[in-house]
Design a protein that fits this description.
554 residues; alpha/beta; Alpha-D-Glucose-1,6-Bisphosphate, Chain A, domain 3; five-stranded mixed sheet; 18 helices; 19 strands; binds 2-acetamido-2-deoxy-1-O-phosphono-alpha-D-glucopyranose; binds magnesium ion; Phosphoacetylglucosamine mutase; magnesium ion binding; phosphoacetylglucosamine mutase activity; isomerase
């Protein structure tokens, strides 16, 4: 049997550092879909402990680099949060989400014991090295939280690498680039410059010889997208003329305020700061606070706002990739598929299903990502604008080695190989997705108007219902049907049947203490009516206080 050097936890050092990052007794933290997320000022102890956890995860995985991103994405500026990134640039393995929650909630007195116990049960070899790369967005609480994280790393003797103020997708990129360095699967140079170079080079190749791309307005949500897109414009030069708006990263309260991808998606309207700026038909897009979500939109000739959300991006991109695979002579060798959630607009599902396989999975990027891995090329987008395209390892190899038989095949193949480089395959990336959209528009010679007319969205409405206990709501069939409370699902279906094109579903949110109701129908008024009827049903069924029943619920 191979002997194993046993190293003990440096308990004295950890205790010393931990004393500087005490946990407030009344607080409870939970590692959910979006990692830990709450008010930034209460997260100090969590970041310290996450530092230790990230180091242990690295040791558990033989010293592979783990990522840590400090952000609260599209949430208000006073919020903050933290997410861990696994070695292939993916989200943290589910079992460790529970370990993270346990460690974060241990009292100050128990903390060392809980840690010791964890090291034992998770069978972590402490003699292994530990490496962690970390970044943060522009939030004012970020700097202090980075310090707490560094103390966690120092307490356990981990090697930390500071990626500075950067986007979530860049941290994912760095993790994958670091862990594949020097291997056959090398993902790219492990630096921010490497990221810009890889992507911009692919973009230039993909649009070379195409008509000049018209100007694009980019709303940076007053967040980290601003400095990052600005740097990217230097690499892109003339190939993509960009105007940046909402770049006030130092203005208190500006982050995500009346701007950004989430604002656009939930309000279905233009950020006020863009009023008067946009010519009819001109494309604009919004990032969210950590630049992993993207929404496109334009104002039509009549002055109406038109939104091109994650579903429209998926439709545009998937059809393009299917075409390229066919043109490259790989139609029956490379299976392209799309993954959506129940929130995908019914019209998008119809459009896509007529062209390629479409799968529906529960909400949350990790479900989409895993399902997309089942295809040779898997396109996934949430309606809210988070998504990417995954090329399986064998497909990447096939694309690299396939011998084209005609010049047309060769061109299509070259485009596919450049897409592999352009797309950030670790996670949704607003910047990479934006360049991808621009490539497809350039190739198809589509304006935003033509893109939008691929299909017409069904009017839809999302309603939050505050209930005493959202945990009584349980779903099946990728969250499209309720199994509990018993008897509610048939009532929802009965209501939906009364409306032309009616569809509605109910699920508990994974990130907020609410139950969400979604509905769509052919007419706007009917989508609204259906949503408010179902919301009323849910509210009453869950025992909501009749004196506080929202007026709009029917
Ligand atoms: C309807 C909706 O937009 N839900 C969002 C939201 O999840 P909920 O579980 O619905 O709260 O936050 C998730 C994490 O950011 C995101 O993946 C998801 O799309
Ligand atoms: Mg985000």
């Amino acid at each position: 049997m191979a002997s194993r050097k046993v190293v003990a936890l440096p308990v004295d050092t950890i205790a010393e550092y931990a004393a500087r990052h005490p946990k407030a007794p009344h607080l409870h933290f939970s590692y959910g879909t979006a990692g830990f997320r709450t008010l930034g000022v209460v997260l100090d102890s969590v970041l310290f402990r996450v530092g230790i956890l990230a180091a242990l995860r690295s040791k558990r995985l033989d010293g592979k680099t783990i990522g840590v991103m400090i952000t609260a994405s599209h949430n208000p500026e006073e919020d903050n949060g933290v997410k861990l990134v696994d070695p292939r640039g993916e989200m943290l393995e589910a079992a460790w989400e529970n370990h993270a929650t346990t460690l974060a909630n241990a009292s100050n007195e128990e903390f060392l014991d809980v840690l010791r116990q964890f090291v034992q049960t998770a069978r972590i070899d402490l003699s292994k090295p530990s490496r962690v790369v970390y970044g943060r967005d522009t939030r004012p609480t970020g700097e202090g939280l980075v310090q707490a994280l560094r103390d966690g790393l120092a307490a356990i003797g981990a090697e930390g690498r500071d990626a500075g103020i950067t986007t979530t997708p860049i941290v994912h990129y760095l993790v994958k680039a670091i862990n594949t360095k020097g291997t056959k699967q090398e993902y790219g140079e492990d630096s921010e410059e490497g990221y810009f170079e890889k992507m911009s080079e692919a973009f230039r190749k993909l649009v070379s010889g195409r008509a000049r791309i018209p100007q694009l307005i980019v709303d940076c949500a007053n967040g980290v997208g601003a400095p990052i897109v600005k740097k990217m414009t230097e690499y892109l030069g003339e190939t993509l003329p960009i105007v940046l708006v909402n770049t006030a990263i130092d203005t208190p309260g500006a982050l995500n305020h009346n701007c950004g991808a989430d604002f656009v998606k939930t309000r279905q309207t233009l950020p006020p700061s863009l009023h008067g700026m946009m010519k009819p038909g001109q494309r604009a897009c919004s990032f969210d606070g950590d630049a992993d979500r993207l929404m496109y939109y334009f104002i039509d000739e009549r002055g109406y706002f038109a939104m091109l959300d994650g579903d429209k991006i998926a439709a545009l991109v998937a059809a393009f990739i299917v075409d390229l695979a066919r043109l490259a002579g790989l139609a029956d060798k490379v299976k392209v598929g799309v993954v959506q959630t129940a929130y995908a607009n019914g019209a998008s599902t119809k459009y896509l299903s007529e062209r390629l396989p479409v799968r529906c999975v529960p909400t949350g990027v990790k479900h989409l990502h895993h399902a997309a891995e089942q295809f040779d090329i898997g396109v996934y987008f949430e309606a809210n604008g988070h998504g990417t395209v995954l090329f399986s390892p064998s497909t990447i190899e096939r694309l690299e080695t396939h011998e084209p038989s005609t010049p047309a095949q060769s061109t299509a193949l070259k485009h596919l190989n450049n897409l592999v480089q352009l797309i950030n395959q670790t996670v949704g990336d607003a910047l990479s997705d934006m360049l991808l959209v621009e490539v497809v528009l350039a190739h198809k010679a589509y304006s935003a108007i033509e893109w939008n007319s691929l299909y017409s969205d069904l009017p839809n409405r999302l309603v939050k219902v505050y209930v005493p206990n959202r945990n009584v709501f349980k779903t099946e069939d990728a969250e499209r049907r309720l199994v509990s409370p018993a008897g509610l699902q048939p009532k929802i279906e009965e209501l939906a049947r009364r409306y032309d094109g009616g569809r509605s579903f109910v699920r508990p949110s994974g990130t907020e203490d609410v139950v969400r109701v979604y509905s769509e129908a052919v007419l706007r008024s009917q989508a609204d009516e259906l949503a408010f009827r179902v919301a009323g049903l849910v509210y009453d069924e869950a025992g909501g206080d009749l004196n506080r029943r929202p007026k709009e619920f029917l």
